[in-house]
Design goal:
Bound molecules: zinc ion
Strand order of the largest sheet: 6-5-4-17-16-15-12-11
Radius of gyration: 21 Å
Number of strands: 19
Shape: globular
Strand content: 15-25%
Length: 427
């Protein structure tokens, strides 16, 4: 993977760039479409590509459980398995292992958490409104040990273990262009004591992930096919604490492992960085700034699990290049769609005989061909096509929004674009 910055936002951390992978190019900043189980729910990969999606992220935890990473490896990686022709990413599994489930059925905005740091059983009652993955009601918490996490499958209750090495091994089999080090995602409501302890552990796990990756990746199909290692991103954690966030960025930026390549020894670090954790809205901007002021400029940065329009503007302005979020397709399946004037629910009575498209100016397939009244009918009668058409619009809306951010950074109208968009959207 190569990353090149082509333009910077004046006086800010924001930048325009290009990521080159063996499977294609990503013009950044870019929204990363989530395909949890190697499928973008309700859409074919061709439809996803036609929306302008450049990269798909699948979830390690989910593919490990179903159908199993060995099967995905036999298929030649998850991109081939699902017939996606472009660049791909997998997360480390850390997010789901720690936080899947406990928040299910509760009223969640970003975060709610209550945790006794002295308990071995870390119950993170958080998944955030933009959590990645579906949650069952009866999921049992994960047990965090020094070198591993023990967790129960949400599918059949069977017990499993993830270590940093295991997460990377699974991600080698899934074969994405960009993969992540195993980390612990904490709730910002954890005590500073627990945050520190967890962060130190995440750094030890990052080192183990990097070492294992550098030892093993050249034996894998990806390397044989492309002649390159998969790109490994380290994940910055540290909750809402400035000192922890800055420490984490510095430690991961400096983390290197000595490798012997073609008879010569050299130090290799991470290829990019993820910014993890679940944020409270008010904390997110400062956390992103603290971290991006420290991380090496020349490597891509992925803000994990963030995708609401207002958050995307903040992240782009503050130097993030990639963002993934399940929200556009998840809310679409419930009948909620993005418009330039905020989100609306197509199930509402007012749309039953509204024969306008979702968004007058939108050029997506759905808006070009269907009315709000028709979509309202599909959702009210539980027709599957509703999910497909609403997902089409929502993904296009978000992908195109980030694309417009990129274009306006290139022609120096980003501030104006943001002000106009948010003025309408948040009104
Ligand atoms: Zn549309």
């Amino acid at each position: 993977m190569k990353f090149q910055i082509t333009r910077k936002l004046e006086g800010k951390l924001g930048r325009v760039g290009v990521i080159e992978t063996p499977h294609g190019v990503i013009q950044t900043p870019a929204f990363v479409t989530v395909g949890t189980k190697a499928t973008v729910k309700a859409l074919t990969p061709e439809q996803v590509a036609n929306l302008g999606a450049q990269v798909v992220l699948a979830n390690t935890y989910h593919l490990y459980l179903e159908p199993g990473h060995e099967i995905v490896n036999q298929a030649g990686g998850f991109a081939k398995f699902m017939n996606w022709k472009g660049p791909t990413m997998t997360d480390s599994g850390g997010f789901q292992v720690f936080s899947l489930g406990a928040a299910f059925g509760k009223n969640i905005t970003k975060i709610t958490a209550e945790t006794d740091p002295n308990k071995m059983l870390t119950e993170i009652t958080e998944t955030s409104k933009n959590g990645r993955g579906e949650m069952p009601a009866n999921f049992k918490p994960a047990k965090v040990l020094e070198d591993r996490v023990i967790f129960k499958s949400h599918i059949d209750g069977s017990t499993h273990e993830f270590t940093p090495e295991r997460s990377i091994e699974i991600q080698h089999c899934l074969g994405a262009d960009m993969i992540f080090a195993f980390d612990e995602c904490t709730s910002p409501n954890e005590s500073i004591f627990y945050q520190r302890e967890s962060l130190d552990r995440t750094h030890r796990w990052a080192k183990k992930s990097l070492e294992y990756h550098l030892q093993k990746s050249s034996n894998m199909n990806y390397f044989k096919e492309t002649g390159e290692r998969q790109a490994l991103f380290g994940i910055v954690q540290g909750g809402r604490h400035e000192d922890l966030r800055k420490d984490s960025a510095k430690i991961l930026a400096d983390m290197k492992v000595l490798v012997n390549e073609n008879g010569a020894e050299k130090e290799v670090g991470f290829d990019g960085f993820g910014i993890g954790g679940s944020f409270q809205k008010a904390d997110m901007e400062s956390a992103v700034k603290w971290v991006n002021e420290i991380l090496p400029e020349e490597k891509p940065r992925h803000l994990l699990g963030i995708g609401e329009p207002e958050d995307l503007f903040m992240a782009v302005e503050n130097g993030c290049d990639l963002f993934d979020c399940v929200a556009p397709t998840r809310i679409a399946r419930t009948g909620q769609v993005y418009t330039n004037h905020g989100k609306v629910n197509l199930r509402n009575a007012e749309f039953k005989n509204d024969f306008k498209p979702i968004e007058e100016k939108c050029v997506c397939y759905t808006c070009q061909n269907y009315t709000r009244a028709y979509l309202s009918h599909l959702f009210r009668s539980d027709e599957m096509l509703g999910a497909t058409l609403a997902s089409t619009h929502n993904l296009f809306f978000i992908i195109n929004l980030v694309k417009q951010m990129r274009e306006t950074m290139l022609n120096d109208t980003f501030e104006k674009f943001r002000a106009e968009f948010l003025n309408n959207y948040l009104k």
